[in-house]
């Protein structure tokens, strides 16, 4: 009986496949608008194409065109394009601050909690273990980012360059899609913060200049909204999607800008170096 049941199922599947094939043939024969392509590789067109000159440093865009079609002019143009090409990788490590006292009424009162200090210390040790020659540490001027950066810096070489940047302060970069009911800043806040955070992106995200011969590694200690917006912008995702990304406290997000202008996300909100008891996001 069991054998008959299996044969019966096979027969039904076979009939279903044949029937489906006949139905498809009939539809395809009489109504071509219902034709189905069997793979995305057939007549595939990207919905959004990569903008190569996103940082306005594409060599062909900064070199004057050849004066004529003469070989000497074209050769001169090609030589200038080669000289304008980037040769190194810019690595950006975006670190979110540690957990902080959210009930503070002013920025000065929104200091790190004890757990937040522990998170920053663990992340500092992790960054030191990577054995990377850090070129620069940039920190937001808000209290929780300043404290986080100071704890991290204890684990880094003493000669690392440290800068403060108001552009990296937390804010509302752009109205999110889909909207979130419990978080609705005034339109004025988006108007003010959007330009500032966009300016921060332009300051730190660009391919290496042609005279840069070695890869660089920069640390940006800032905030969740800023980092999420940066990730969307760098990968040319819809910027309105930034609030769909969740970031843990003191997490590591690593982006690499390649010489040809392509951007690679190597890690997002990485807290694998922490024990579960230390991981928080709110």
Describe this structure in words.
With 282 residues, the protein is α/β, with parallel strands linked by helices. It is 37% helix and 13% strand. The protein has a 6-stranded mixed beta sheet, sandwiched between helices. The longest helix is centred in the N-terminal third of the chain and has 29 residues. Strand 5 and strand 6 form a beta hairpin.
What CATH calls the topology of the largest domain is Rossmann fold
Alpha carbon gap, first and last residue: 59 Å
CATH architecture of the largest domain: 3-Layer(aba) Sandwich
CATH class categorisation of the largest domain: Alpha Beta
Our count of domains comes out at: 2
- In terms of DSSP E residues, the strand content is 5-15%
Task: State the strand order across the main sheet.
Answer: 3-2-4-1-5-6
Number of helices: 7
Gyration radius, in Å: 26 Å
Which tags fit this structure?
globular; 37% helix; 7 helices; Rossmann fold; alpha/beta; single chain; 2 domains; 282 residues
Give a quick rundown of the structure.
This protein has seven helices and six strands, in the order αααβαβαβαβαββ. By secondary structure, the protein is an alpha/beta fold.
Topology:
Blueprint: H1 2-30, H2 59-62, H3 71-84, E1 90-96, H4 114-129, E2 136-140, H5 143-153, E3 161-165, H6 187-204, E4 216-222, H7 224-234, E5 252-257, E6 263-270
Parallel strand pairs: 1-4, 2-3, 2-4
Antiparallel strand pairs: 1-5, 5-6
Helix pairs in contact: 4-5
């Amino acid at each position: 009986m069991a054998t008959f049941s299996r044969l019966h199922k096979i027969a039904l599947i076979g009939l279903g496949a044949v029937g489906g094939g006949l139905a498809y043939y009939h539809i395809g024969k009489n109504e071509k608008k219902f034709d189905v392509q069997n793979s995305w590789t057939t007549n595939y067109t990207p919905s959004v194409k990569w903008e190569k000159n996103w940082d306005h440093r594409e060599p062909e865009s900064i070199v004057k065109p050849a004066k004529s079609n003469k070989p000497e002019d074209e050769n001169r143009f090609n030589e200038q394009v080669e000289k304008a090409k980037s040769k190194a990788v810019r690595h950006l490590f975006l670190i979110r601050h540690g957990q902080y006292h959210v009930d503070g009424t002013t920025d000065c009162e929104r200091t790190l909690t004890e757990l937040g200090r522990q998170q920053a210390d663990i992340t500092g040790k992790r960054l030191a273990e990577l054995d990377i020659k850090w070129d620069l540490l940039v920190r937001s001027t808000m209290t929780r980012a300043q404290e986080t950066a100071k704890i991290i810096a204890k684990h880094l070489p003493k000669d690392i360059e440290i800068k403060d940047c108001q552009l990296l302060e937390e804010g509302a970069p752009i109205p999110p899609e889909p909207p979130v009911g419990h978080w609705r800043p005034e339109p004025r806040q988006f108007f003010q913060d959007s330009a500032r955070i966009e300016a921060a992106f332009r300051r730190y995200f660009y391919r290496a200049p042609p005279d840069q011969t070695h890869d660089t590694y920069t640390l940006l200690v800032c905030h969740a909204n800023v980092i999420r917006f940066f990730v969307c912008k760098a990968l040319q995702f819809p910027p309105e999607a930034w609030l769909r990304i969740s970031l843990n406290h003191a997490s590591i997000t690593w982006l690499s800008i390649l010489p040809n202008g392509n951007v690679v996300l190597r890690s997002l909100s990485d807290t694998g170096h922490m024990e579960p008891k230390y991981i928080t996001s709110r």
